[in-house]
Write a structure and sequence with these properties.
The complex is a heterotrimer. By secondary structure, chain A is of the alpha+beta class. Chain A has nine helices and 18 strands. Chain C has two domains: about 150 residues, Periplasmic binding protein-like II (D-Maltodextrin-Binding Protein, domain 2, 3-Layer(aba) Sandwich), CATH 3.40.190; about 160 residues, 3-Layer(aba) Sandwich (D-Maltodextrin-Binding Protein, domain 2), CATH 3.40.190. Chain C contains 14 helices and ten strands. In chain C, strands 1, 2, 3, 4, 5, 6, 7, 8, 9 and 10 form a ten-stranded mixed β-sheet that branches. At the B-C interface, helix 4, helix 14, helix 18, helix 20 and helix 25 of B face helix 1, helix 3, strand 2, helix 4 and strand 7 of C.
C-alpha cells in the first residue's frame, strides 16, 4: 500500500482551476519531486497534502488513513519553505525547540537532546545559539530542515527549498538533503521548478502543467521516454522536427554528427558553438530552417574542426527517436 | 456529517472561526449597532414615522445645505493635497537625505497630534487672524476665516498622518534599484518618478484616503475658523446641537460615510494587484551626498517645524505668564486649575482613560488585523471585517457620541451598565481611532512571512501560541506605534467624549475647551502643556524602545 | 526575543505607574469621590420630602464653569449632605445629550439652560411638572405657563453688541455712532460685524427672532432688515459668545452677542464696550427643570427649590442682572434698567416658528454666501 495517496483532487480559486483531478501515489521512503513551471499548481498540491489548504473535492490518505479533513497539525509532517520561514526572534536551537516544546510528555532534557541531534544531522550544532540573521542562506535553510525533522515526522514536505540559494550552495545542499532523507528513510515530497534538481534528487518525478499531471516516472523514464511534447521540452533540451507527418523528438546528445556525407539524415548549418568545458553544444539550423542543437565532446569537436557557419551532417539514431502524433509544441 | 461542513470545522479552523466571529461581533456591537440606532433616524420624520428618502430629498433640495457637499469636497481635496505633498517631502527629507537634526524634526512633525485641535485654531488666529502676528507684519494678506482657514487647519491636522505613512514607506528602499538607475545615468527626477513613486504608490493612495476622510469629516477647524463656510460636519452640528433634529443629522452622517466606502472599494481594487513586498535580497540604500538637495530639504523641514513650534510657543507664553497678554511675568499659578472644569483631576482622568484606551485598543486592533490578514478562508466574513475597519475613519466624533448615547443608554441594552462609566469613553476612543492603527497593524502583518503559521501548524503548535511567540514579538514596533497613537489621540480627543463623559469623571481635553470658552487662556494653555508633555514623553519612550529593538535585530 | 519582551513590559510598567498615580490622586480628591453614594441616595429616598439633608443628584447645566463652582459652594454649605454631580457643556450639547438620553434619562435636574431648549424637551414630554418653593416670586412671563410649571426661569440673557473701540476708530466711527440695529447697517461696517448663526447657536436664534418680532411678526420687514444686515456681516459663527470674544481680540469690530459675554470681555481688560440696541433686545431665559424619571430623588427638588431662592438669585445677579423674579440689578457701568431693554418676547411663537424661521434664514443667508474678499 502506498504511504501517501492523493485521489482525484480538485482545487479552485474563485473561478480559476488550480488543480484538476490530480491523483498520485507515493511509496514509503521515496523522494518524489513535483516539477512544473510556475503557476502549474504544484505548490497548491503540496499545501493540500500538508492540510494548509482544503481541496474542493477528492481525498488524501496518509499511511492508509483518510486524512482529507485532518488539520495540518494532526498530519505529522515536517515542512521547509523557500523563504526558510525561520522565526527571526529565536535562536537556531530555539527554532528547533519551538515544535518540540509541544510534546508535553517529553522531558526537557530529551527535547534538548533531540534538537541537538537534529542540528548535528545538518552540521549546525556549533551554531545553535546564533540567530538566523547571523547565518548564511544555506545555513538558514539547513536550520529549517533540522526544525522540520526534529519532531521525527512521518513525512517531509519541501517547497522549493533551494530556489533562494546561490548555485554553488544549491548544488551542495541537494546532496545533503538527499543524504539526510536516505539516512532517515523518510518519505519526502519536494516541489521544484528546477528540472536538474528534480533529476538529480528524486526517486520519482511528477511533472505538472496547467493544473494537470503530465507524467509520473523515475528520472530516467521521464528523461528518456517523455510521454508528451510538454514533458519532452520541459525536461532537458529536446529537438523537435517534422518527419513524414509526424513530430519527431531527439535529445542533443543523441544526435550523431559526422563530417562524412554518407548515411546522414540531415545537413545542418552551424550557427554557433558553445564551449561548455568537457562538452560543446552546437547550435544549427536544419534545411527547413528549424532550430537544432547537438552536444558532442569538446575533444571530438576540435578533431572535426567544427566552425561556425560551416555545415555538418547529422544522423538521428532510430533507437533514440521519440515520435508524437502531430501536435504543436 | 456533510463533507463541506467537515471541511470548515476541522478542529483548528473551528477555533479560527470562533475568534474571527468573536472580534467581528464585538466590533459590530460597538460600530454597527450604535450607528444603526442613529442612522436609522435618517429615514424617520419628526414624528418618528417611516419617511423613506424624504429627509434626503429635503436635504438635497436646500441649496445652501447641499452646497456643503461641494464645499466639503473642495476643502478636503485641497488640504489633502497640501498635507500630502508636504508630508511626502518632509518624510523624504528624513528618510532619503543626509540632513541634520532628523530626530528633532521627527518629533516636531508630530506636534499637531500632540495637542488638542482647538489649540491649532488658536495658534492660527494668533498668526493669521486679523490681529495675527503675520497679518500685522503684512505677510498674510488673506482672509483666514472661511475656506482658507479650514484648508490650512486641516492640512496641519492631517500632516502628521501623511508624514508618518510616507516615512514608513520611504524608509524601506531597495538600494539595488537606485544603483541600477544611477548606472544608467538617471536624473534625480527620473529616479523619483520611475522608482520612488511607483514603489510607494499604495501608500500614496492610502495616505490620500486617510487625509481626505479626516479632512472631510473634521468638525473642529470649520467650527472655530470656518466662518460662514459650511461643510457637512458643521451641518451635522447645526442639525444636532443647534436644532436638535437628529433625523437630519443622521442624513448628513450617512453622507459622510461616502469617502470611506469609496476608499474601501478602491482598496479592494488596488490591493488585489498589490503584491509588492520588499525582496529579501534588497540592499540598504546608500544616500548620496548632495549639498543642494540637503540644503533645500533642511530649509523645508525648518520652515514646517518653525510653524509648528510657533503653534506651541504661545502655549508656553500663555501657560507660564500671569495674565496673557497684559502681564507676562512668569508664574506657575495657571497650573492650579479651577475645580469646576475638572481641575487637575481631569488630567489624571485623561491619563487613565488614554492608557486604558491604548492598552485595550492595541490588543483589539492587533487581534482584529491578525484575523483579517493571517487566516485563510472565511472570505465573506473577512471582507465584512475589512469593510468595517475603514468606517470609523469617516465618523465625526459627534456621530459616535450621539449614537453611543442612543445605543448604550437604552434600558433594554444589556450593555447599559457601561454607560456613564470610563468604559464607554474607552470603547468610543477605540472605535474613533480604530482605522489608522488597523492599517498599521495589517501592513506590518502583511510583511511577516506568511509561512510562519504553516510551519508552526506542521509542528502541531497551536495558532495562539504562534501568535504570541512569533507574530507579536515580530510586530512589536507596530504594536508600540499603535499604543502610542491611541494614547496620544485619547489624550486630545473631544468631539465624541464630550457627549459621553460622566459628571464625576471629567477629562482634560474637554476642560481645555471649557477654560478657553470661559476666557481663561492661561489655564487652557497650561493644561495643553501638560498634555503635550505626556504625549512627548510617550513618544520618547516609544522611540527609545524602537531603537533598542532595532539594535537587537540589526 | 526575551529582551524585546522586557522592553515592552518596561513601557507598560511605566504607563501603569502613571495610571496608578492618577487613580490614587483621583480617589483622594473630592470631585471624583463616589464611595458610599448608593447608601446616601437610599437614605435620601427614606427621608422623603421634608428637610432632605442627603442624596446624590446629577445636574446638567449650560452655566459657565466658574459660576457653577461659585454657586455650588453656596449650595453645599447649606446642604452638605447632597452631592451634586455637574455635567456642564454648551447649551446645544447639553440639549442634544438630554434628547438622546430620552429613553433612559440620566440627569435629575437641568439647571441654567436656555428656555428655548427646555421647550423642546417639554414638547417631547420629558419634563416633570414641579412647582419649586417660591415659584410664586417668579414673574409669569419667565416660567412655563402650565398650571404646575415644567420649567422655571432664573435669569435672562439678551442681545448686545460688543464693540472694539480701537478697531472702530480705525473705521472712522465713534462708539456713540453705534446705538441701534439700524446703526449696524452703516456702510463703514461692511465686513466688520460678526454674529452667531441661529441654526447652531441659541444667541443667534434669539437675535434673529427678536428682530423679526421687533419689525412685526409675519411682515417681511424683519427679513428685509436681515438682508441688509447680511451685507455687513463678516461671518456667522457657531457659538453665542464667540462674536463678543472676537471683538475682544480685535478679530472683528462689532460682535453681535449677549450681554454677559460682552461684559466678560470688558472685565478681562479688552478695549471693548457693550452696547444694547436702542430698539430693544431679543432674549431668552436661563431656566431650571426637573427630568421625568421612574424615581425622582427628593434631593433634586431640594436643589430646584434652592436654585430660585433669594440666596441663589443674588448670586446670579452678579453676572446676569435681569432676574426672573423681577428684582434684578444693573450691568456695571450701565445706567438704565436692563429690564426695559427687553422686547416683548413671545417664547411660544419662537418655539412654534423656530423651524420655519431657521429654514428661511438658512435659505437666504447661510452658506450660499461665504464671505467674499
Amino acid at each position: 500500500m502506498p504511504f501517501l495517496e492523493i485521489i482525484n483532487i480538485v482545487k479552485k480559486f474563485d473561478k480559476q482551476i488550480a488543480l484538476s483531478d490530480i491523483s498520485v501515489e507515493i511509496e514509503k521512503g521515496e523522494l518524489v519531486c513535483i516539477l512544473g513551471p510556475s503557476g502549474c499548481g504544484k505548490t497548491t498540491l503540496l499545501r493540500i497534502i500538508a492540510g494548509l489548504e482544503t481541496a474542493n473535492s477528492g481525498q488524501i490518505f496518509i499511511d492508509g488513513v483518510d486524512a482529507t479533513f485532518l488539520p495540518a497539525a494532526k498530519r505529522n509532517f515536517g515542512i521547509v519553505f523557500q523563504s526558510y520561514a525561520l522565526f527571526p526572534n529565536m535562536t537556531v536551537i530555539g527554532n528547533v525547540l519551538f515544535g518540540l516544546r509541544q510534546k508535553k510528555w517529553m522531558a526537557k532534557s530529551d527535547m534538548h537532546t533531540k534538537a541537538c541531534e537534529a542540528l548535528r544531522l545538518v552540521d549546525l550544532f556549533e551554531h545553535k545559539d546564533k540567530f538566523p540573521r547571523q547565518l548564511s542562506g544555506g545555513m538558514q535553510q539547513r536550520t529549517a530542515l533540522a526544525r522540520a525533522v526534529a519532531l521525527s515526522p512521518s513525512f517531509l514536505l519541501l517547497d522549493e527549498p533551494l530556489s533562494a540559494l546561490d548555485a554553488k550552495v544549491r548544488q551542495k545542499l541537494r546532496g545533503e538533503i538527499r543524504a539526510i532523507q536516505r539516512s532517515l528513510g523518510i518519505t519526502t515530497v519536494m516541489v521544484t521548478h528546477d528540472q536538474e534538481e528534480a533529476l538529480t534528487m528524486a526517486d520519482r518525478i511528477v511533472v505538472m502543467n496547467n493544473a494537470v499531471v503530465e507524467q509520473i516516472g523515475t528520472p530516467r523514464e521521464i528523461y528518456n521516454h517523455p510521454t508528451n511534447p510538454f514533458v519532452a521540452n520541459f525536461i532537458g533540451t529536446m529537438n523537435f522536427y517534422q518527419h513524414d507527418g509526424q513530430t519527431c523528438a531527439i535529445r542533443p546528445e543523441n544526435i550523431v554528427i559526422t563530417n562524412r556525407k554518407s548515411h546522414y539524415d540531415f545537413a545542418a548549418h552551424v550557427k554557433a558553438l558553445e564551449f561548455k568545458g568537457p562538452m560543446t553544444r552546437v547550435h544549427g539550423t536544419l534545411p527547413d530552417m528549424s532550430e537544432v542543437c547537438m552536444d558532442i565532446s569538446s575533444e571530438a569537436a576540435s578533431e572535426m574542426r567544427l566552425n561556425e557557419n560551416g555545415t555538418v551532417f547529422l544522423k538521428m539514431p532510430q533507437e533514440n527517436l521519440i515520435n508524437y502524433a502531430n501536435t504543436a509544441v | 456529517m456533510n463533507s463541506s461542513i467537515r471541511r470548515w470545522f476541522s478542529r483548528f479552523r473551528f477555533w479560527q472561526f470562533v475568534v474571527l466571529v468573536a472580534v467581528l461581533l464585538a466590533f459590530t456591537v460597538i460600530l454597527v449597532f450604535p450607528l444603526f440606532s442613529l442612522f436609522s433616524k435618517a429615514f424617520l420624520n419628526n414624528a418618528g414615522e417611516f419617511a423613506g428618502f424624504d429627509n434626503y430629498s429635503k436635504y438635497f433640495s436646500t441649496p445652501s445645505l447641499s452646497a456643503s457637499i461641494k464645499n466639503t469636497l473642495d476643502i478636503a481635496l485641497w488640504s489633502t493635497l497640501f498635507s500630502g505633498v508636504l508630508g511626502f517631502l518632509y518624510a523624504f527629507a528624513l528618510a532619503r537625505t543626509r540632513i541634520r537634526w532628523k530626530t528633532f524634526f521627527k518629533y516636531t512633525a508630530m506636534i499637531p497630534i500632540f495637542i488638542p485641535t482647538v489649540v491649532h485654531a488658536l495658534g492660527l488666529v494668533y498668526m493669521f487672524g486679523r490681529q495675527g502676528v503675520l497679518t500685522r507684519a503684512g505677510l498674510f494678506p488673506f482672509e483666514l476665516y472661511g475656506r482658507l482657514g479650514i484648508i490650512i487647519s486641516e492640512a496641519i491636522f492631517t500632516f502628521p498622518q501623511a508624514f508618518l505613512m510616507f516615512f514608513v514607506a520611504l524608509e524601506f528602499a531597495d538600494g539595488r534599484l537606485y544603483e541600477a538607475a544611477d548606472s544608467m545615468g538617471a536624473s534625480p527626477l527620473e529616479k523619483l518618478t520611475r522608482i520612488t513613486l511607483p514603489e510607494i504608490k499604495y501608500t500614496i493612495i492610502n495616505a490620500f484616503f486617510v487625509c481626505f476622510t479626516l479632512a472631510f469629516t473634521d468638525f473642529g477647524a470649520p467650527k472655530v475658523i470656518g466662518g460662514s463656510f459650511n461643510v457637512l460636519a458643521t451641518d451635522i452640528y447645526k442639525q444636532v446641537a443647534g436644532q436638535f433634529n437628529f433625523n437630519m443629522g443622521a442624513v448628513v452622517g450617512t453622507l459622510l460615510l461616502i469617502p470611506a466606502l469609496a476608499s474601501f472599494t478602491v482598496d479592494r481594487l488596488v490591493s488585489s494587484k498589490n503584491s509588492g513586498t520588499i525582496s529579501a535580497k534588497a540592499t540598504k540604500l546608500m544616500i548620496a551626498k548632495s549639498i543642494k538637495r540637503d540644503a533645500f530639504f533642511f530649509c523645508l523641514c525648518s520652515l514646517v517645524t518653525a510653524f509648528f513650534l510657533f503653534l506651541i510657543a504661545m502655549l508656553f507664553v500663555g501657560g507660564l505668564s500671569e495674565h496673557y497678554p497684559y502681564n507676562l511675568s512668569l508664574t506657575l499659578k495657571n497650573f492650579l486649575f479651577n475645580r469646576s472644569a475638572g481641575g487637575v483631576d481631569s488630567y489624571f482622568n485623561s491619563l487613565k482613560m488614554a492608557f486604558l484606551s491604548a492598552a485595550f485598543g492595541t490588543a483589539f486592533v492587533f487581534v482584529y488585523a491578525y484575523m483579517m490578514e493571517k487566516i485563510n478562508g472565511f472570505g465573506a466574513l473577512r471582507k465584512y471585517g475589512k469593510l468595517l475597519s475603514v468606517l470609523p475613519l469617516a465618523l465625526p466624533g459627534m456621530v459616535i457620541g450621539i449614537s453611543f448615547i442612543f445605543f448604550f443608554n437604552d434600558r433594554g441594552n444589556p450593555l447599559n451598565f457601561i454607560y456613564g462609566t470610563i468604559a464607554i469613553l474607552v470603547v468610543s476612543n477605540i472605535l474613533h481611532y480604530f482605522s489608522v492603527p488597523f492599517f498599521t497593524a495589517s501592513g506590518c502583518l502583511k510583511k511577516l512571512d506568511k509561512e510562519y503559521e504553516s510551519v508552526a501548524s506542521s509542528m502541531n503548535v497551536p495558532q495562539w501560541k504562534t501568535f504570541l511567540r512569533v507574530s507579536v514579538p515580530l510586530s512589536l514596533p507596530a504594536i508600540l506605534e499603535i499604543f502610542m497613537y491611541l494614547f496620544v489621540n485619547a489624550m486630545v480627543t473631544v468631539s465624541a467624549v464630550v457627549f459621553l463623559y460622566n459628571a464625576k469623571f471629567k477629562i482634560a481635553a474637554v476642560a481645555i475647551i471649557h477654560m478657553e470658552e470661559a476666557g481663561n487662556f492661561g489655564q487652557a494653555a497650561a493644561m495643553s502643556l501638560l498634555i503635550l508633555a505626556i504625549n512627548v514623553l510617550v513618544r520618547i519612550l516609544y522611540e527609545a524602545a524602537i531603537k533598542i529593538i532595532k539594535e537587537k535585530r540589526l | 526575543m526575551k529582551k524585546n519582551i522586557v522592553i515592552f513590559i518596561a513601557v507598560l510598567m511605566i504607563a501603569t505607574v502613571a495610571v496608578f498615580v492618577a487613580s490614587c490622586s483621583g480617589t483622594t480628591s473630592p470631585t471624583v469621590e463616589n464611595g458610599g453614594s448608593e447608601t446616601e441616595s437610599r437614605a435620601a429616598e427614606a427621608n422623603e420630602t421634608e428637610g432632605v439633608a442627603s442624596g446624590e443628584i446629577t445636574v446638567y447645566t449650560a452655566l459657565e464653569d466658574e459660576q457653577v463652582e461659585e454657586y455650588l459652594e453656596v449650595f453645599n454649605a447649606k446642604h452638605p449632605g447632597i452631592k451634586v454631580n455637574i455635567y456642564r457643556e454648551s447649551t446645544g450639547v447639553v440639549t442634544a445629550k438630554l434628547l438622546a438620553e430620552k429613553s433612559n434619562p440620566v440627569a435629575d435636574v437641568v439647571w441654567g439652560t436656555a428656555a428655548s431648549s427646555l421647550l423642546v424637551l417639554d414638547d417631547q414630554n420629558m419634563l416633570e411638572p414641579y412647582a419649586p418653593e417660591g415659584v410664586g416670586n417668579i414673574l409669569a412671563q419667565f416660567k412655563s405657563s402650565k398650571p404646575v410649571p415644567t420649567w422655571v426661569g432664573i435669569d435672562v440673557w439678551e442681545t448686545a453688541f460688543t464693540i472694539n473701540t480701537v478697531e472702530l476708530e480705525k473705521l472712522g466711527l465713534a462708539v456713540s455712532d453705534i446705538s441701534s440695529y439700524e446703526d449696524l447697517l452703516r456702510p463703514e461696517l461692511k465686513g466688520h460685524v460678526v454674529m452667531s448663526n441661529p441654526s447652531s447657536s441659541g444667541t443667534g436664534l434669539l437675535t434673529v427672532t427678536g428682530l423679526l418680532q421687533l419689525k412685526g411678526k409675519g411682515t417681511g420687514t424683519g427679513w428685509d432688515f436681515l438682508t441688509q444686515l447680511h451685507e455687513n456681516i463678516d461671518q456667522y459663527v457657531h457659538s453665542g459668545s464667540k462674536p463678543a470674544k472676537m471683538a475682544g481680540a480685535g478679530e472683528c469690530v462689532i460682535g453681535v452677542s449677549f450681554g454677559y459675554a460682552g461684559i466678560k470681555q470688558v472685565r478681562d481688560g479688552n478695549p471693548v464696550v457693550v452696547v444694547f440696541p436702542s430698539e430693544g433686545s431679543g432674549w431668552d431665559l436661563e431656566a431650571n427643570a426637573l427630568l421625568k424619571k421612574d424615581s425622582i430623588d427628593p434631593a433634586a427638588k431640594v436643589f430646584l427649590d434652592w436654585a430660585i431662592s433669594d440666596e441663589a438669585m443674588n448670586l446670579y445677579k452678579a453676572n446676569y442682572p435681569i432676574l426672573a423674579n423681577g428684582k434684578g440689578g444693573k450691568y456695571d457701568g450701565f445706567s438704565s434698567d436692563p429690564v426695559d431693554q427687553l422686547i416683548d418676547n413671545d417664547l411660544v411663537w419662537v418655539a412654534s416658528n423656530r423651524e420655519s424661521v431657521l429654514y428661511d434664514w438658512t435659505e437666504k443667508f447661510d452658506g450660499k454666501s461665504a464671505p467674499q474678499k
